[in-house]
Amino acid sequence: MKNGWLILLSGILWSCSHSGTPSDIDFSKLPYKTLSEYGLFTGDLKNFSQAEGVTPYEPVSSLFTDYAFKKRYVWMPGNTHATLPDDPDAPLDFPDKTILVKHFYYPLDFRKPEGEKRVIETRLLVKNQGTWEAYPYLWNDEQTEATLKNTGASIPVSYTDKQGAKAAFNYVVPQKTQCRSCHNKNGVMLPIGPKAKQLAGQLEKWQQTGILETGKDLSAIHPLVNPFDVSRPLPERARAYLDVNCGHCHSQSGPASTSGLYYNAEEDRPFHLGVWKSPVAAGMGGGGLKFDILPGQSKASIVTYRMNSTHPGVMMPEMGRVTIHQEGVELIARWIDSL
Amino acid sequence: MRLSVLTPAVFLLLLAVSCGKKEQATSLNIEKLPKAGPEQVEKLIEQFVDAKEGSVIEIPEGYYELPTQLILDNVNGVKVKGAGMFNTVLSFKTMTTGGEGMKIAGNNILLEGFTVADAPGDNIKTQHCEGITFRQVNTTWTHGKKSENGTYGIYPVQCRNVLVEHCEVSHSRDAGIYVGQSENIIVRNNYVHQNVAGIEIENSDNAEVYDNHAENNTGGILIFNLPGLPKPFGSGTRVFNNLIKANNHENFAIFQDGNPVSMIPPGSGVVILAGDQVEVFHNKIIDNRTLGVAIASYQITDLPVPTHPGWSPYTTRIYIHDNTYERAMALPDLSKDWGKLIAAKCLRAPDILYDGILDPAKGKDAATNPMQVFVDEKTEDLRFFRMVIPDDGNVMGIRMEKDAKSFAGSYPVSTDVSMIPSNK
User: Fold this and answer.
1) Cβ(B41)–Cβ(B71) under 8 Å?
2) Which chain A residues have a beta carbon less than 8 Å from that of B127?
3) Number of folded domains in chain B?
4) Which domain covers residue B294, as residue numbers?
5) For B97, which of A172, A272, A289 is closest by C-beta distance?
6) pLDDT tens-digit profile of A216-231?
7) What is the pTM of this model?
């Protein structure tokens, strides 16, 4: 009898903690309550060991989220593949049942990025029956599991930064409904990072492993550059930074189209980049300044003023951060001063 | 057209201007409301997150302090109903990220019977909605620090079939009720006070603004077309039967901001900027100390005039008639360039001020009315002023003509808002 009870118990435990493989996911039952149920990772969840078929990727220009470190992965069902869209600002066309995964974490000491870390949240973007859905998972204090949390949270974060200084603030996990504030093209939820211009040097590998099929010439893509690669020209660095941090919203098909200010890398009309452009509805975000960009004068430009603020009525981007990205402000200021 | 030179006489006038401040009454009394606990707040956020097509979100009486935005994310047919305009109060004063308090996307949405207060950006923004009704919604900023007030109170943008009625909107740092880049609009029976702009219709088509009470804003009702927006231009607005009273509030939009609203002089009743097909009639335009109705082209802002397909800086096809004017026993504003210009050149508040700026493609002599600006007021001693700007643009050389007769005639504007399901 004793044995039978143990078998029963282990059976229950197994069924609770079992992570199958992503191929076992029942998409009609999503979202799962916990991250481990998807089977995207093997072993201890915290180790981020991706399961077979889960491909890590990295955009060349990364969105600033309060200095959080990020790891990104894509999974597609076997024998399916992504294709390249015609619009250079659109994400890849992914097959149904694609899952995009993004961990947000802080190393305790930024000088040892692979050392001890605190994982805050993992966001999934799942394509099901043609539409993307966002599922946010919040990690527990024990760092053993992440649980679906649709209503957001505020999590105290502290770490030692690259200069050895202590940093501490309340990291804001967005609500599920806030996802579309950025993940939005003409009102439709879409991924932001996995665009061809962001995946320079990685798409060839995707092609080799069969998760990308395209007749298009990959060498014809205009890739973004790493905004903090000082060997690259300043304008390209600035535009790459603005593309990923602003352009998802500030584009003709983004929610901030209302402003007439566009920062996707393809935009080339000075007025729509903010040059000598007065704001329409900046309110206190205008800071008493006349123009979004006043060439040569970053201190008199609204763009840098808003990047350099943490007041929720002033700051841009208006969510996804509670701190100032000093290096980003510096980069854009230098660029404006050079115009 | 910068007015940097003030004559000593004007300075004397400035000293003579009284700075009497008037505060409007509101029925909002947060103190008396039960404060919602953390569970109630969390439940409310959940109701928005989980809203499905046709959901009705009822919010009981109380004061709710929200740490995060309330968002309806592309769901249709949702009704959000409070326990009454002043009984359910949603405050966003402690929120640390996200600009707007309430943010709505979806079709056939009803927002009714609650207050939204103290959002860092806009109180309620609705975008890409077809069918959006605001009814008995109050929005305000309560902290009394005007420099911390947000931009818009009620802010439908890129919407179709918009109804805003029986709402109260106060203390917005830009426009209280701002309808932007939208089509088919009714704004009626609202009370707007102590905003920079009471009601603003911008780059929008087919709008009716009537039976509103706009008092003690900087500017009462504004009809604008601004350049460089996805919806490049708007046409067809009728403004009628409104009480537009004593809109003499200090302009607390940030001075020198490029936003034209920051240039509105206190004491402005109705301002039409780069407007097309605007009819203003049967309004009571009372005690606005700087101007009753201004008809202006974008050039007057002194901002660069960009060229954008579909947009024009010129105001045209305007019809102002049968309004009632009563003038304030006060001097025109001197805090803004427009006010200084009026004070210096008109010496008193005009009922109607026309900047006389012409599209050269349409004509060269304002007295022949090439821009089709028509004025038919019954007021016997109507104060109509038309600016004549010298070719060199020198402000000091501006003359005022009082030739209302050149603009006699009519231009009835047709609007049709019958598609708005306003009687539900």
Assistant:
1) no
2) 255, 258
3) 1
4) 151-407
5) A172
6) 999 999 999 999 999 9
7) 0.84
